[in-house]
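ok trying this again, last paste got cut off
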Amino acid sequence: MPTPSPIDPATSPKWALAGRIVTMDAHATVIPDGAIWVKDAAIAAITKHADAKPQGFEEVVPIETHGTIFPGLIELHNHTAYNALPLWHVPKHYENRDTWGNSPEYHKLITAPMKTIGEATDLLPALVRYVEIKSLVGGVTTTQGTALFSAPGIRRYYRGVVRNVEETNDPNLPEAGSRIGDAQASKADAFLAEIKRKACFLLHLSEGTDEAAHKHFEALHIRGEDWAIASSLAGIHCVALKDVDFKTMMKRGASMVWSPFSNLLLYGRTADIAAAKAAGSKANPFKIGLGSDWSPTGSKSLLGELKVARVYSQNNGADHGTLLGDDELTRMATINGAEILRWEKQLGSIETNKRADLLVMAGQDAHNPYLTLFQGDERNVLLVTIDGTPRYGTPAMMSVDGPQTEQIVVGGQQRVLYLAQDTEDPDVSALSFAAAKAKLEDALAHIKEIRLKQEAENAPKTLADAAVVRARHPRLALDEFEHTDLTQRPHLPLAAAATGPKDHPARQATPISALLSAIELDPLTVADDVGFLNRLAEQINLPAYIAPGLRALYEAKHA
């Protein structure tokens, strides 16, 4: 069988970009006034403003950004399919993922709508188009994918323009695992062998604050010094982990993915990042990546999650100091993510011969080169490129034009999208962003009627029925409640007792259609979401400093 071609082709125009360059290389190099020269998807050269143009670029005039250029953001955790849904007003304090995931409120506002959308095959391309653009306008160039299946065990990922960590078809970008078979998740030795098959395995771990959540970690202990933990394991959330647990992970070369906003919204607490840092050293730090999780209980994009991480860090350092500096936080969303994936030779920093995944933010702070990444809203994103191809930005920044571009408005400002790519899913590539948005808005406004029609056509009537996978038309793979024999949440037994989720009676008998009412499509950005910051102040589990701290960052103006 011939080797599949890479999903993200190494082709791009020859062009250049000028501004302050925050490279995120091993020396944390910042070039105050420099230029990045791009050819065939890669960074051909990096120069200072006063340097001569590189050979072959004599006729190229760099685009002047007057901003700060970062590597494209790498997101290691996102349930992208859910990002059409608005932020959930979390009704109570939870201690474990299994409790809120089985609550009647959650089923009504999130599970039932997603089950309905997931069954509507004609809506899936619009959903994929919308949620990937939501990532893109937040500076994200790499995230997790949106999966669908048509029968048990048969699964594929939608292909868009934003890179997917689970499917690349590229030996230079080894594909991450994110789902493990139930058979492997039932015995620690088999679990260990399975996660070792991948360079990186992204799995939810100890999602909650109580002892039940911690048991998910305890179940990884095999015997003595043997653990079902390998250097490939990247534990998502890790909220219940203790300092000794982080040391256990560090000793075995494992890493973690932090999603602070979702943790704080649900539990009022997030992972013990101080303990995670202490498990490593300056010479050999414990690797931490970042993920926005999803819109229902998280940030709209990684750009928002960075703000949450910064506010949290400024309020949780020792002796009222800062827990993580802006440089450390930026590393989490760039080079750390690449290193966790084992992609650091290709991505994560701005260096010659690496792929030209770039993010340009407005402004150049005189004292802190990282600050522009944290201040202001999505209107400060001036340009996003993937593999050297400009995909999103201001009209002045975009070096592509013509019938394949699309004009959109973000926060009242004009932006340009360029979504043409030969490897994209044909059903997705046929949809403009405007058409996808309109289709989703209409579907969510009439979500109850759609479900009633599905039930009349013999779709599973209740959520309990929906948990049984049947060979029908293609639909979203919603692993949170549908038994597909593949899970993102390992539930190894501990002392012969199951540690996995249990079905809640609330989801057994009520028809899905009876749970539904009209929903508004979640706005693409905070800049377009009137009242978003006010709604954060109403969330009962957030620490008191989060909402005002986020407001200060979102409303900050560059000097």
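PB: full thing came through this time. The longest strand covers residues 30-39.
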